[in-house]
Amino acid sequence: FIAEAADNCWDRLPNRARKRFTARAKRWLNYQAARYMTPQLLDARDPAGDVRSWLTAIAALLHG
């Protein structure tokens, strides 16, 4: 019953509100994931080192 009610509530929301709630949830999940990320976890998830290379490139751009 609760899931059905929740589905109905979501279906009744305007698209703008859905997008806003979705963006808020993504932002929260990103914060939580980054908060617990360690170098070891990053290496396990990205063995090719793509994320590290992106972060290094961003840091180089910021520090000119």
Task: Describe the structure in your own words.
The structure is a single chain. The protein is mainly alpha-helical. About 85% of the residues lie in helices and about 0% in strands. It contains 4 helices and no strands. The protein has helices at about 1-10, 15-35, 40-45, 50-60. It is elongated and about 50 Å long.
- What is the molecular shape? elongated
| Spans of at least 5 consecutive residues with low confidence | none
Mean pLDDT: 89
Helix run count? 4
Structural class: mainly alpha
Q: What distance separates the N and C termini? A: 57 Å
Output the helix-strand order.
HHHH
Quick description:
By secondary structure, the chain is mostly helical. Helix content is 83%, strand content 0%. The longest helix has 22 residues, at 15-36.
Main features:
elongated, 4 helices, 64 residues, mainly alpha, 83% helix
Walk me through the topology.
Elements: H1 2-12, H2 15-36, H3 39-45, H4 50-62
